[in-house]
Each structure stands twice: as C-alpha cells, then as structure tokens.
Amino acid sequence: MSASTSDKHAGESSGLALDTDLGWAIRMVSSAFRRVATESVADLPGGARAYLVLVALASGEPPSQLALAKAVSLDRTVMTYLLDDLEAHNLVTRRPDPRDRRARQVLLTDAGRTRLNQVRENLAAAEAKLLVDLDEHDALQLRTLLARVAQTAQSSSAAPAETDC
Amino acid sequence: MSASTSDKHAGESSGLALDTDLGWAIRMVSSAFRRVATESVADLPGGARAYLVLVALASGEPPSQLALAKAVSLDRTVMTYLLDDLEAHNLVTRRPDPRDRRARQVLLTDAGRTRLNQVRENLAAAEAKLLVDLDEHDALQLRTLLARVAQTAQSSSAAPAETDC
DNA sequence: TATTGTTATACTCTATAACTATA
DNA sequence: TATAGTTATAGAGTATAACAATA
User: Fold this and answer.
1) Do B145 and A149 touch (CB under 8 A)?
2) B82 Cβ partners below 8 Å, 6+ apart?
3) Which residues numbered 9-68 in A keep a CB inside 8 Å of some CB on B?
4) What confidence tens digit (pLDDT) does each residue in B33-79 have?
5) Is the full-model pTM beyond 0.70?
C-alpha cells in the first residue's frame, strides 16, 4: 500500500490514508469525470444534466416532467428551466397531456436525437480517457458495480419512509 | 426504470439507457455518498472536506497549506478558510515554517486526532450503508477500482502539460 | 520574477418555499 | 387536499483574479 516513509503517527498501519478513503476516491472520480466530460457536452444547452434528460427520453413513452425528473434524479424545479433551454434549441418539445391538463408530455425531437448521438460518441471517448488505466475487464467491472450501487441508491432515496433499523 | 414495454425508439438495444450510463452512475453514487456521509461529518467544522484534511494530516511531517491543498486536491483558497475554521475549533494548529517565512506548517492537535477517529467510525458505518447491496468481495473490488481511477485522475490533473496525443 | 497565503468575486449546482392551475 | 409545473431565493461548492509578504 506504498507506506514508504515515516509512520510514527500510526497512519497507514490503521488503514487511515487518503488513497484508500472511499469518500476521497468518489470525489476524485466525480470531479475527473466532470473535467473530461465537460467539453463533450459543451454544445448541449444544460450540459451534463441535459444529456441525462435526453438519454431518459430516448426510449419509451413520452413522460411527464415529473416522471422525467424522478427518472434522472433531478429536482422538478431544475427540470423546468432545463427543458426551457432544450426546447428553445428545438431538441425537445412539450405538449399538453390529453389525460391530465396539469401535466405536459416531453418528447425528443429528431434534432434532439441526432444531437444525443453526437454527444454520446464524445462521451464514450471521454469515459475511455477516465478509465485509461483499467483493462477491459476491470473497466466493465467498475461500471457494473457503480451501476448497482447507483440503482440501489436511487431506490432508497426515492423511498423516504420505512426507516426501521 | 423497468424497460418492460415498448422499445420502438431503439433505446436499450443500442446500449443507450440511463442505468448503464457511467456519468449517471457516478452522479448517483456521489450524491448518495454525500447523503449518507453528511451526518457523519455534521459536527466537523468544514464538513467532508475538513475530514479529508484531517486524514491527510494524520500521518507524515506537518505539510504547508499548499502541499496539503495539493494532497487532498482542494484549491489553496478554500484551504485557507477551511483551516481557519478547524483552527478556531482547536482541531489543527498553524505555525510558521522556520525554513520559509512565507509558509505555515499545519499540525493536527490531540483534539483533532480524537475527533478524526470519531468521524472515521461514523463514516465506516455510512459507507457500509452505501454499499449494503454488495458482498464483501464486490465492495472491496469497487473500492480498489475507484481508488485506482482516483489516483490516476489526481496525477493527470496535477500535470497540466504534456498533451502529446 | 515566482511562490505562499489571503481576500474578494462570480458562477454552477443544489435545496426549499411559495404560487398557479388543475385533479 | 394533493399533484404538475413554474418562479424566486438561499446556500453550498468551485474557479479565478488580485493582493501582500517573502523567496
């Protein structure tokens, strides 16, 4: 574990080190991803969050803004101006839901789908840059484990009740 | 999101889905960690970032503020008021570097070391909560892979030159 | 001239409350 | 009363520039 020099304060020996800290690793990976992904989504109004919205819109029936917000784990208040921006650039459209006059259905336009595919290619390259030191197997392993934790995290955050430890 | 019904828009079949998106997973894991870790570091002035500072201080020689900032990948401008806060609570001390009158050495106090160990126990429980759906092997695997990516990310972010593709 | 620490400023992201129109 | 969408505001976190003291 590369505890090269002095450990007079009992640091590394007790597992107390920055490079083995989960919070530090998450912070570093998160900021590194943002760094490499920023230019990939630079021409997308709304940036990385807008990309997630487009991905969520790419399949299935047109969702309401609230359903969309829950799907990508964004607040519905940010969904409003995110969609404002995307709609102003003709990447999505909003139409009234015929079944519920409070709700609006969100649809991906053809231009939006095209743009999504462009951004997606850029992002694939950026992700490869982030995981450059991992071989194919390890990269897939990391993606899979992250996805699993992400999904359980989404489920548990969506369920605010039932806290019987 | 249970891709049970229609895939008429060729979403999942081309790998274009939210639950397999690396950026989404990183975002979710990052926010989930922040959620579970927040109360663990609630009584620490400066929160999660202050914890990283204390960890970095727990071993080795007392670093300068700049060296400390580089070690935890924080800006030196935030290090200033982070240390202001920690010092005001007697968790760290600053003293002039006898070898360089511009620099100040940062030291962990006994109270700081005690507090660090308390927070560390809380964080261990919070991390377990985050990784609850992973068995011991998978959890270690994820920690290891994240740490590897984090370290290469730190190295590459610290070296802004040498961009010969 | 370059570096250490500090201060100030701005921008992004996030969180919350309040309002409307519908149900 | 509750829900969908909107608007406004406040707070973290981050990034940058400028400054004083020292090298």
Assistant:
1) no
2) B46, B49, B50, B53, B74
3) 9-12, 16-33, 35, 37, 48, 51-52, 55-56, 58-61
4) 999 999 999 999 999 999 999 999 999 999 999 999 999 999 999 99
5) yes
Q: Which domain holds residue A125?
A: 44-147
Contacts of A137 (CB under 8 A, 6+ apart): none
CATH number at residue B65: 1.10.10.10
The helix (run of H) or strand (run of E) holding residue A100 is: strand A100-108
Are B25 and A58 an interchain contact pair (Cβ–Cβ within 8 Å)?
A: no
Give domain status of residue B11, yes or no.
no
Residue in chain A closest to B128 (alpha carbons) equals A22
- Domain assignment of residue A159, yes or no: no
CA distance, residue A95 to nearest chain B CA (Å): 19
> How many structural domains are present in chain A?
1
